[in-house]
Amino acid sequence: MTWEKIKTDIVGFFSKNIKLKLISLLLAIIFWFVVINVTDPPTTQTFRNVNVNVINSSVITGENKTMEILNESNIISTVTIRAPRSIIQEFGSSSDNISVTADMKKLSADKTTVPLEVTTAKYSDKIESIRLSSDVLEVNIEDRKTIQLPVHATTSGDLESGYVLGNITQAQNQVRVSGPESVVNRIAKASVDVVVTGFRENISTSADIVLFDSAGEVIPDDNLKLNINAVKVDVEILATKKIPVRFNVTGVPAEGYDLTGEIDSDVDEITVAGSASAIAKIEELVIPGDALNVAGLSSNHRAVINVANYLPSGITLVDSNQTGKINVTVFIEPLEEETYSVQLRNVQVLDIPEGYDSTEWAMDEDYVEFTLVGLKQDLENVTLSALNFAIDFVDYENLQDVVNYKDGNVYELPLLMELPEGVQIKETVMIAVKLHK
């Protein structure tokens, strides 16, 4: 028989009596449905991740014991039910009608497992079988231990530039932890952490308590009981500012000595912190003179000053670990003397008394000498032309209580000069002058 003959026979078979063949197929399908519904054959349905209900746990906890479920055995991965098809359809796809129970009163002798019992809410008498992927609840029974330990508050993250952390306060600083002895023995510390990233203002929040072991690893608290789970924490955020440090000096050095005016310190400025309003008010830190008293000293005065003691209220050093101590030196040097002379023609006569129009010098020499006292560097800066030498009859009248002058009389007036700061005349120089009408 050829291939062409075979194809012809097949086409002929399907093309003849088509209506009759379709009616036969339809009848077969109807007959199958009727048989299925009448006989209701058994079938299976699998339910996944069914939770185990643990009962009578008080028989364990009542003896000051703890119970830990191991290997997630309280969740049954599959429960397979075999029952008539109609019953399976009634159950649907939900496991709500299935109950898996572990009764702690049936704990095994070695105290490691509890048998599981499964029941259904309906049709239990029509179910052929129920098969669990696991038939026991695995448990770990331990003595219960309770400890109390301090709660430490920490911060994490970075503040905005120009801000630092201030005081950290917490509403509670103790926590009581209870649980399996093996777990509780691992606890080394308890802490709460506040994230401060991006903050410029004070933070007030509730932070969860986290338990750590000695290696700094987090201890899960699934099987632990804490008397408190969170602590209210207030974190102070302070603004910072750099300010200069200035020094005042009090007292007079020993005779023949004077301050050079130079003060040396190993810190010229400090960084302080405080609230925004407090920081805005402070521009510098002035150390008062009683911290640097040079009374009676004839050599440089060295002192250690704690600047923290002089900060105004609400202002602190940025680094709380800083001692705030700085070394300060006040320089003291001996006074020196230098003798000068000035020509009388370079001395001005001021405020000639009324009625007199001229004066003449009544001196043996046409110059006078005077001695200035001061520090070396100050004397080196003395320029005679800048001293503006003069005698003044008004000053003389005030000093000598003179009211009337006489023509041709000689009067002795003190030599006046404009001395630079730090320089003094050793002794007053008198200049004799004769008045003429």
Which bin fits the share of residues in helices? 10-25%
Report the uncertain regions.
none
Mean pLDDT: 88
Gross morphology is rod-shaped
Gyration radius (Cα, Å) is 53 Å
Fraction in beta strands: over 45%
CATH topology of the largest domain: RNA Polymerase Alpha Subunit, Chain A, domain 2
Number of helices: 8
CATH class of the largest domain: Mainly Beta
CA-to-CA gap between the ends?
Answer: 174 Å
CATH architectural designation of the largest domain: Beta Complex
Structural class: alpha+beta
Counted up, domains total 5
Annotation, overall tally of beta strands: 28
Major sheet size, sense and barrel closure? 11 strands, mixed
Structure keywords:
RNA Polymerase Alpha Subunit, Chain A, domain 2, single chain, 11-stranded mixed sheet, 437 residues, 6-stranded mixed sheet, 8 helices, 45% strand, alpha+beta
What does this 3D model show about the protein?
This protein is α+β, with helices and mostly antiparallel strands and 437 residues long. The chain has five domains: 3-39; 42-134, Beta Complex (RNA Polymerase Alpha Subunit, Chain A, domain 2), CATH 2.170.120; 143-237, RNA Polymerase Alpha Subunit, Chain A, domain 2; 248-334, Beta Complex (RNA Polymerase Alpha Subunit, Chain A, domain 2), CATH 2.170.120.40; 336-436, RNA Polymerase Alpha Subunit, Chain A, domain 2. Helix content is 16%, strand content 45%. The protein contains eight helices and 28 strands. The chain has helices at residues 3-15, 18-39, 58-61, 85-91, 181-184, 276-281, 376-379, 393-400, and strands at residues 42-55, 65-69, 75-84, 98-103, 113-120, 129-132, 136-156, 163-170, 174-180, 189-195, 203-208, 210-212, 225-226, 230-247, 257-265, 269-274, 285-287, 301-306, 315-317, 325-334, 336-343, 348-350, 358-361, 367-374, 390-392, 410-414, 423-425, 430-436. Strands 1, 2, 3, 4, 5, 6, 7, 9, 10, 12 and 13 form an eleven-stranded mixed sheet that branches. Strands 8, 11, 14, 16, 17 and 19 form a six-stranded mixed sheet that branches. It has a three-stranded antiparallel sheet with strand order 15-20-18, with no helix packed on it. The chain is rod-shaped and about 165 Å long.
